Amino acid sequence: MTFAIHTFGCKVNIYESEYVTNLMQQNNYTLVNYSDEADIYIINTCTVTNEADKKDRKLIHTTRKNHSNAILIVMGCYSQLNPNDIDADIVIGNKYKSKVIQLLDEFLNNRKKIVKIEDLSNANFEDMYINRFINHTRAFVKIQDGCNAFCTYCTIPYARGGLRSKNPQNVINEVTNLVNNGYQEIVLTGIHTGRYGKKLNTNLENLLKELIKIKGIFRIRLSSIEINEITDGIIELIKKNEIMAKHLHIPLQSGCDNILKLMGRKYSVNYFIKKINKIKKEIPDISITTDLIVGFPGENDDYFNETIDTINKIKFTKIHTFPYSRRNGTLAANMANQIDGNIKKCRSREIISMSDRFEKIYYKSKIGNVYDGIVETRSDGKKIVVTTNYIPVLIDEDLNLINNTKVNVEIIKVLDDKILGKLG
Question: What is residue 194's DSSP assignment?
Fold first, then answer.
């Protein structure tokens, strides 16, 4: 039988979809493109915003409508929170993805709808193990799941459950196997990665110290980490060890203390700026990117201008901007002073413009520098090299570059929409 899979959302979802794909293929199911005719369609959903929910519902509806005779499996965060709203043959939350073969066999035997959802507040880590990635040059490794931060705007603690982590030796074994299978760069990912190991009497810093010892490993990259979880030891590791990528994605969410308090974030603007300045002083070449929410309830013009001021002080390499999304069941949904949608759009455009400017400034400051990196092929067929500080350098030379090859690249020019380089 053939199957197709579509993934919405974060790197954790990408990892889990890759695991499901591997599992299906190991059990003699054949992967086809989602646009092709298949016997089974799998949708791995996201629920981080209302817009994400809309995309989930649209694809579920169109898949059901256009492929009415196929088996439809819907899994992930949207499934976890909205199982009764989903018209699918098998509905799986954020546990039992590893049981997809058994659940599929059960459905094939009796043709009765299966809904497999469980309370995740005290769930154990669902071990998954991957030794290859079909469509990615870099390999993701999920080391952690769940979140107990309960930011007032976020449903993810309900969709993903409490903090839990993969056993450190299992992480080491998985990374070692991926490196032995030729993957040069490993991206460590989780829902709240900086809290890795909380219930295992270890932490992220300890794990990193072990992973950099793996024979043949070229680069380790962190997908995201909170500002108050970046220890001095992690900074030291990034500073002194070439294996650690010189890039950190650190969510700010707001540059105004009053809004941070309303959001339930656990730091102040002053703390954030001081920590960023320390990181930049220790690692001058580092690229720091961030997430920002605009239009949070109560964010008046003065508070938004405080965020603008904070951003100008920090000068992130790139800012991923999201208009506040009102989520049922969260504290922020019932807060006073909800912001008009047009104001959110205007503020988003302003932040995106700032981000574009900072991005070009950062890239232009690196002209003439030589970095090592991994060759990748973009969707348009162009070859790029992704450097340690996450600069996607386009190689226009007519060279037969092979994906996943380590090369040195010199940045020679920065244009409006691309960074040009030559092999050095």
Answer: G
